[in-house]
Backbone:
């Protein structure tokens, strides 16, 4: 039995999986709650030990947000909760606490690995996984191997790929980054500013995509969103020479309203993969993908 841990901006997810990737147990805790209980690392280790108590573990893995050093087992730099882990060998701390070998990588890579191994990417030689959530995450599996190198940023380019040199300034220092337009958080902010009527809805993004067909003003924004996303998808396809992109994250709850239009543009414009031969698939594992991928990172 394996334990996978996915440390994100808002939540920490814990999963227990058998060797076939079946979920035996899954739990989500809020980072803020763990941080409020004392040292974040200690409460995180306690939570993992509590979650796995009495189980016969063979291996574990941690997917961690931020820039990570896979060889050193720790975070290099990050923003918000998790930055305090910089310089700490997290892999060693988790291995010691749970008494099993632990694997470690960035959460976007763990997500891509999970979807490739057990989700929408099963059977594909190569995939790129992009998540449209708080930001836009991105990682690639190429010829059955996670794309990484001695440079910790390798293969993670997605959200901070500029799609407009005259665009707004991004906190990262560039202009017109994809995630300013296409992350769930930023897109929802833009929508709520433009269409106050959406604030009355419980799930504004879902309501927007579901209602865009009947409202010309919404349809125009939807077209622009899909056009922006298409540039990002084509760029990563061309960068990696990979024709299959898996899209996940909160925004993809509306994949039925997004993917057909997106696919039409990408099919027409992407020419290096080769032309016309592209696939854009909704993620299958959603909030478990990174957890499951982390648990199997050693493979
Ligand atoms: Zn940026």
Residues:
């Amino acid at each position: 039995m394996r334990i996978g841990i996915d440390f994100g901006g808002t939540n920490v997810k814990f999963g227990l999986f058998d060797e076939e990737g079946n979920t035996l147990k899954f739990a989500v805790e809020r980072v803020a709650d763990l941080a409020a209980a004392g040292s974040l690392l200690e409460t995180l280790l306690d939570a993992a030990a509590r979650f796995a108590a009495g189980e016969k573990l063979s291996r574990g893995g941690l997917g961690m947000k931020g820039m990570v050093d896979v060889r050193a087992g720790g975070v290099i730099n990050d923003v918000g909760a998790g930055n305090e882990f910089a310089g700490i060998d997290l892999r060693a701390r988790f291995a010691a606490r749970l008494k099993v070998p632990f694997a470690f990588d960035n959460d976007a890579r763990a997500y891509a690995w999970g979807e490739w191994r057990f989700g929408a990417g099963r059977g594909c030689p190569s995939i790129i996984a992009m998540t449209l959530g708080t930001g836009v995450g991105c990682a690639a599996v190429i010829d059955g191997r996670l794309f990484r190198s001695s440079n910790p940023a390798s293969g993670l380019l997605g959200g901070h790929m500029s799609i407009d040199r005259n665009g707004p300034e991004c906190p990262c220092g560039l202009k017109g980054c994809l995630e300013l337009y296409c992350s769930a958080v930023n897109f929802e902010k833009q929508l709520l500013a433009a269409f106050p009527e959406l604030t009355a809805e419980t799930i504004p993004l879902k309501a927007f995509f579901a209602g865009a067909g009947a409202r010309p003003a919404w349809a125009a924004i939807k077209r622009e969103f899909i056009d922006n996303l298409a540039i990002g998808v084509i760029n990563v396809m061309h960068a990696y020479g990979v024709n299959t992109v898996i899209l996940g994250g909160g925004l993809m709850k509306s994949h039925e309203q997004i993917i057909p239009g997106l696919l039409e543009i990408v099919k027409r414009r992407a020419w290096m993969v080769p032309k016309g031969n592209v696939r854009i698939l909704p993620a299958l594992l959603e909030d478990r993908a990174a957890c499951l991928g982390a648990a199997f990172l050693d493979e």
Notes: The first helix runs from residue 31 to 36. Residues 2-111 form a domain with the Nucleotidyltransferase; domain 5 fold (CATH 3.30.420.40).
